[in-house]
Amino acid sequence: MNTTTQSQEAPPPIRAIIVGMGDRASIYSSVALTNPEHLEIVGVVDVNPERVRQAQLMFDLPDEHCFSTVEELLEKPRLADAIINCTMDRLHVETSLPLLRHGYDMLLEKPYALNDTEGQLLIDCVRETGRKLMVCHVLRYTPFYRAIRRVLATGAVGDVINIHMANQVGYLHESVSFVRGKYAREEICGSGMLLTKCSHDLDIMSWLMGGIAPVSISSVGGVFQFKESNAPEGAGTHCLNNCPLERECPFSARRLYIEYPLRWANNVWHDTHSNPATDAEKEKILRQEDNPFSRCVYRCDISIVDHQSVLIHFRDGSTGTFSMNGGASTPRRIIHITGTRGEIYGDFEEECFHVRQMEPSAPGGYTERTLDMSDFQQGDAHGGGDRSIVLDFVALLRGERTSPGCPTLEDSIIGHRMVFRAEESRMQGGTMLPF
Description:
Blueprint: E1 14-19, H1 23-29, H2 31-34, E2 39-45, H3 49-59, E3 66-67, H4 70-74, E4 82-85, H5 92-101, E5 105-108, H6 116-129, E6 133-135, H7 143-154, E7 160-170, H8 171-179, H9 186-189, H10 193-208, E8 214-222, H11 239-242, H12 253-259, H13 265-271, H14 279-286, E9 307-314, E10 319-328, E11 332-339, E12 342-347, E13 352-358, E14 366-372, H15 374-377, H16 385-398, H17 409-427, E15 433-434
Parallel strand pairs: 1-2, 1-4, 2-3, 4-5, 5-6, 7-10
Antiparallel strand pairs: 7-11, 8-9, 8-15, 9-10, 11-12, 12-13, 13-14
């Protein structure tokens, strides 16, 4: 006799619609393929017909659930429980407001807004509608940062005096996305480098501080490397067409995107809406005069910064320092926390961190232990955080227990406002601004 009650049965999967079928949405929505019991993709919205077709094939979507604009989707009754919103930064609030008012809950790619004014519109909308909104701060879900937070909570290193963090943006990612790509100019993407790339990092700093709010922020930065005055003498304007120095340049489009096509080269073909199969086809595409990915990196006229430093004063007297350096030889996220009884320092890409504690009787005056996260992160670029945040979003919508630090909109405000204030300070020449 089957005694299982209805209340004990597994809940149905959360039904979601993708809005903006780019790289991030592809990653988040893939949970529907690996864990269909938790997530089901039932629709897609994208201005690019090829991306709509990609989603339609991936998730077997009917034509009537495929849209080119949010307005088309809004003409229909609510078709799902939630939206996975991965539109360009400048469209986040513009697309989120009507969808929330239409009754959808939302997983929203960071940054949730471009400034405080936009952010307040989103906050007000969530409060008015009662919808659930989670911001994609995937680094909170990595074993690396979660373990650091647990160590801090034990008091092992005492009270935090300073948190220093650095984001070394590797030259491969820098050249594809932030010099030659769609994030090179605020007029296109809507946000600067700090907001686009480093809102993750400042959110982590705020999260590790455990609710201690900033009181003031200052920041400086600019374009140091990727400007025309740094172009080598004799360099052309186009790698494959007119540059005699192409073979010796580390930013050669041929070398980065054909000969050594590491991870970020995929974005070149994705963003040019092409799918070349051979090296000859790739070279033909890169030789096109209007292809942005074969321009000389020193002649791209970027409007975002390629390096920036931030100083934060917290309410309890502690400080935070953060630096972003674009074009580094190796991508790195580095953290060093100094406490009153010890310190924590680690490298996210090396998947481990070290805890030193004061101990006069020990050799050197301290003890040290290393926490290795490699078995958990397994070389994943976001340490498994992409999948984990989607599953936590499902739990949030089901009313189940969510993970510590679940980044709801209210919980994301401080980290984002740290970025907003830092950008204001930079534009004012580094002026110290109240938080």
